[in-house]
Each structure stands twice: as C-alpha cells, then as structure tokens.
Write a structure and sequence with these properties.
It contains ten helices and no strands. The radius of gyration is 15 Å and the shape is globular. The longest helix is centred in the middle third of the chain and has 14 residues, at 91-104. The model has no long low-confidence stretch (mean pLDDT 89). The chain is mostly helical.
Length: 155
C-alpha cells in the first residue's frame, strides 16, 4: 500500500483529479479496496475515477443491462431514501438496507446491488459494493442514485 499511494497520487495528479483537500487516509482506503482488482496503477486509477471526480465514466453496456430495465429507477430512488436515513454510514448498514428493501419488494438483493454499482461507479464490476458505498460516502452515493434514477432509467 505504501508503494501504491505515491504512484496513485502521481496518476491522479496527471489527470487533474488530485487535490490537497483529499484526505490521504481516505485515498488509502480507496486504494486498499481496489488494489486486488487492478493489474497496474493506471488500471487502479481508471477503476476508481468515479470516486475521485464528479463525472462518472459510465460503461454503456452496464447502463443498458443494469439501468435500462423496467422498475430500476424506482428501486434506486427507494434505496437512496433508505441510505439517506441510515444513522451510521457503513458497509453493514448499507447492506442491511439493501437486503431489507429487496425482501420488501420481493426481489433478489442482486436486483438492487447491480444497478446500484453502475449508478455509483459507472461500472458493472468491482470490489464489495457495500464497502465501495462506505468509502464513497453518503454525500456522493445518495445523489448519484437519485440522479441515475431520474436520468438513466426508463420512466
């Protein structure tokens, strides 16, 4: 991890995504979460772009298969509402909220997990979604779910 952080910082800086306002401990958590999924530092930075920028690099195929399905927008909006009300923001709470909502809606948890991942990260694959949500933070996750529900999902 100590070797990856300076390289990651350099790559982020080259793209204009590094800021001295970034908490190095938070950057370390992002790197630690994604490091086993990336083959190179550049790959790690590409996979985490949605956490460092306001622009989400959406994978078009992921949007088509995960967000353009009937009812997904309403599910994402409902999950955003649940997440917003969590008293403590962590992976355990995000997972419990997801599974409870899926059960109420008589869906598989995957029917919420996969669209949520795409709405938040733009990608269809990645590390544990609930840990990604924890690291991304409520202030980023909830608006992204609502934005995807409103603009990427069919009415």
């Amino acid at each position: 991890l100590e070797q990856l952080l300076p390289l990651g910082r350099e790559q982020l800086g080259q793209r204009g995504w590094w800021s001295d306002r970034l908490d190095p401990a938070w950057v370390g958590r992002v790197v630690d979460l994604y490091k086993t999924r990336a083959e190179t530092v550049e790959d790690l930075v590409r996979q985490t772009q949605g956490l460092f920028t306001d622009e989400i690099p959406f994978d078009e195929e992921a949007v088509k298969t995960r967000l353009k399905q009937p009812g997904v927008g309403a599910r994402l909006a409902a999950y955003a509402d649940r997440l917003e009300k969590l008293p403590k923001w962590d992976a355990t709470g995000a997972e419990a909220a997801c599974r409870a909502l899926a059960e109420e809606l008589k869906l598989k948890a995957a029917d919420l997990i996969h669209p949520t991942r795409v709405a938040v990260t733009g990608r269809s694959v990645g590390p544990s979604l609930f840990h990604v949500l924890q690291v991304a933070g409520k202030e980023r996750v909830v608006p992204r779910l609502r934005q995807a529900a409103a603009s990427l999902c069919p009415a």
